[in-house]
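Tutorial, part two.
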Amino acid sequence: MDGEIIMADEEKERGKDTNIVFVGNKPPMNYVTAVMALLNSTEFDEVTIKARGNAISRAVDAAEITRNRFVTEAEIKNIEIGTETIAREDGRTSNVSSIEICLCLKKNK
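Running the prediction step on this input gives:
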């Protein structure tokens, strides 16, 4: 229950007018649907998929499923990888890998 409250608060803080999809523990198709909705909207012509740790493989899966099966006119614009330092409950810090995949719609020539 607390997780749901935090997610709702984070969504209010970020606003609904964002083109970022944060990947967590849900199946990849949930994120594919979110990416498709953003790309098919008239507001955004690019979407960033962000993930950390074990969710990185789901982010890659979501990007590839979107690009190869549903929005074939989408292409990968940029991929950034990095390490984020996270404060743990016991006061120590941990390093967690992160990825950002930017998908955009191909320009018609």
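Confidence is low (pLDDT under 50) at residues 1-13. In part three we will examine how such features are distributed along the chain.
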